[in-house]
Every structure is written in structure tokens, then in C-alpha cells.
From TrEMBL:
<comment type="pathway">
    <text>Metabolic intermediate biosynthesis; acetyl-CoA biosynthesis; acetyl-CoA from acetate: step 1/2.</text>
</comment>
<keyword id="KW-0547">Nucleotide-binding</keyword>
<comment type="subunit">
    <text>Homodimer.</text>
</comment>
<dbReference type="GO" id="GO:0000287">
    <property type="term" value="F:magnesium ion binding"/>
</dbReference>
<keyword id="KW-0067">ATP-binding</keyword>
<dbReference type="InterPro" id="IPR043129">
    <property type="entry name" value="ATPase_NBD"/>
</dbReference>
<dbReference type="GO" id="GO:0006083">
    <property type="term" value="P:acetate metabolic process"/>
</dbReference>
<feature type="binding site">
    <location>
        <begin position="246"/>
        <end position="248"/>
    </location>
    <ligand>
        <name>ATP</name>
    </ligand>
</feature>
<feature type="binding site">
    <location>
        <position position="57"/>
    </location>
    <ligand>
        <name>substrate</name>
    </ligand>
</feature>
<keyword id="KW-0963">Cytoplasm</keyword>
<comment type="function">
    <text>Catalyzes the formation of acetyl phosphate from acetate and ATP. Can also catalyze the reverse reaction.</text>
</comment>
<dbReference type="InterPro" id="IPR004372">
    <property type="entry name" value="Ac/propionate_kinase"/>
</dbReference>
<keyword id="KW-0479">Metal-binding</keyword>
<protein>
    <recommendedName>
        <fullName>Acetate kinase</fullName>
        <ecNumber>2.7.2.1</ecNumber>
    </recommendedName>
</protein>
<feature type="site" description="Transition state stabilizer">
    <location>
        <position position="204"/>
    </location>
</feature>
<keyword id="KW-0460">Magnesium</keyword>
<dbReference type="GO" id="GO:0005737">
    <property type="term" value="C:cytoplasm"/>
</dbReference>
Amino acid sequence: MRILTLNPGSSSMKVSLVEDGESVHAETWAAAEAVSDERAVREAIERWGRPQAIAVRFVHGGSRPGPALVDSELLRQLERLGTLAPLHQPLSVDIARLVRAALPDLPVVACFDTAFHSGLPEAASRYALPRAWTAQNRLRRYGFHGLSCQYSARRCAELLAASDVQMLCCHLGAGVSVTAIRNGRSVDTSMGFTPLEGAVMATRSGSVDPGLLLHVLTTGEADVDSLADTLYHRSGLAGMTGTSGDLREVLAVRAAGEDSAETAVAVYLHRLRREIGAAVTSLDRLDAVVFTGGVSEHQPGLVGELVDGLGVLGLRTDPARLAGSGDRVISPPEAPVTLFAVTAREDLELAREAAALLGATAPA
Ligand SMILES: Nc1ncnc2c1ncn2[C@@H]1O[C@H](COP(=O)(O)OP(=O)(O)O)[C@@H](O)[C@H]1O
Ligand SMILES: CC(=O)OP(=O)(O)O
Ligand SMILES: [Mg+2]
């Protein structure tokens, strides 16, 4: 089946044409407006040929455990989740609407990051809030980067030639998350009710003491709207350095001797190590750690720095392997935990989910 996959991330739009499980054409565009993306999607279809279906990544699917065929009602429901993922969800809704209007005879499938985490154990998904707030099970940890984690878990089992793998998936892109996975199932993850929780990200703060947020609201330093804007767009690496938050830029500024970048990278790595340490406690043993996402792919030196501070967990990198390319082991042969660098292939998961759904729903 030929499936065009659309993956709006917070810093990029990734487009791939997947044919029978393999990507035959792929492009990454810098984050743009949905309208220009729609024009680019049309052009991609003209160049690459017509697909049989389109799969769109939505970071937030609420409680949905798997993909769904897009119709107007579903898009209305997903639009209502927009404030829970403002860097992603509105763009996914817009692009799905635009491609449906432009290509009305093609089925469009929505695939959700949250679905992979829909079976989280209650101890991991529940916030310690009053029962009246949590009784409907809506105000809880949903978790994100699920399509990436699902692919990493599959790839890791394949590379280890093992089933029942207990592993961590560290997705280091513009968004950053750490997920503990047992035999392909998510058992804890650092992102929560929204993709704002957890590690430091390109422009997002990650976790901040809720008391600090209450304080700035109480003193009037911020109101709700400006706080949301600050936490999503003007914090993280960008906020600490005054750069765009893209690690290429942050590391260049650090190399030039800028103190703010030195501190920002130290905070980024420290907080990421804390998330890794916390996630390990949801496993009985640690077989493997997968590093994936744009930063893992393009900044192996930074992955080396990260792992240098994780010796206490038995994690070590091998500099020669780290300097390699493609999906590979990056730990030395004698290390107790196998570390992998894996290219994020959300496109293959999007296509796989769409094909499974359409195969299952096609008329006999
Ligand atoms: N050479 C590179 N090309 C692309 N991204 C890079 C490169 N080096 C580092 N990066 C980092 O990867 C991040 C993008 O990761 P990616 O997973 O593609 O993002 P998104 O969150 O948009 O899906 C950038 O913000 C940047 O920090
Ligand atoms: C959930 C999330 O932050 O995704 P991305 O890293 O693609 O922006
Ligand atoms: Mg991404």
C-alpha cells in the first residue's frame, strides 16, 4: 500500500511516502504554516505520485488506544485538545482538514502519540490530585512521542534479536522525553498531561515546581496566557540562552565560550539524566537504552556527554561506535547495558498503523 505520512513536529514537518513498509521518498521542511504545508504536500504528490491513503501524526488523541479514520467530527474532537499541545495539535488539525479538502477521495488516518502510552500502570499515570479531579481519568499522564517509542522498541528487539526487552527510549528532538518500556509496552514516561512535562526542551521548560508557577501568577509577573506562551515558546534552551533553542546553535554558542550556553547545556543534561534515572525504576532490569530523534541522530558528541554522567547505571559509550552512522550499537561490547542510536522512523509507524486500520476497515 502507498501511504503518504505527515508528521508535524514542533520544529519541522516530516513528509514521507511509504510503500509496503519502506520509505521511497522523504523530505523534512522547517516548521511552517499549515497553508504552505498543504501546498508543499500537493507538490510532493505531483512529484511522487498519488498515494492510496494519508496518515497524519497527532500528538494528542485523548484516551484513544489506536488510530482512527478522520472525519469532520473526529477533527472537531481533536481540535478541542489543542490547548493541551499548542505547538502540535492545531497544525495537525489544520493539515488534516486541508488535505481532506484538497484530496476528498483519499482516506486520511489519524495516528496518536498518546496511544502507545494508553496502558500505563495507574501508579505512573495518576497525579496526586483530589479524587474529584481524577475520577473521570482525564486529568492524568498521557505521554507523547509514542510513535517514535513504538518504532524504537520494535527496532531494539530486532537489533538484539530478543523478545521481552526491558529498555528506555530517549527521544531527543525539539521535544524531549524518556520512556520505560517492558516487552513493547510503555510503563512510565516523562511527558504528562501535556508535552510540557519532564526534560528540558528546545523552547519548552519541562517540569517546573507548580509552586513557582502559582507564585508568578499570584504576584502578577505573568497571567495565564503569557505564562503559557513563556513555558511553550520562550523557555528551555531558547529561554536560557536567547538562541532559537536549536542545539546546533546552542552548541556553537557554547563552543564560542558563552556562559549562558554552558549553563543551559549543563541544565539540559542534568535534567535528562534525572529523567533517565527515574524511568529505570519502572523496570526489573535494564537491557538497552535507545537514543533517537534529531539530536541523537546529529549530535552524537552530546549523547556521549550525557552518557558520561550515567556510569552509575552501567551506561557507557564507545567513541568509535558513537562516531558511526545509521542504526547502531554505541556502547562497548563489554558494557552491561547495550546502547543504540536509532533514526526516528515515525513515518514507518504511521504507515503501519494506517495500513492496519484500512485493511481492517476495508469492505470485504
Ligand atoms: N544537523 C542537524 N540537522 C537537524 N537537526 C539537528 C541537527 N543537529 C542537531 N539537530 C537537533 O535536532 C532537533 C530537531 O529534532 P527533530 O527530532 O527533527 O525535531 P522535531 O521535534 O521537530 O520532530 C533540532 O532542534 C536540533 O536541536
Ligand atoms: C511531542 C513532541 O514534543 O514532539 P516533537 O519532538 O516532534 O516536537
Ligand atoms: Mg519529532
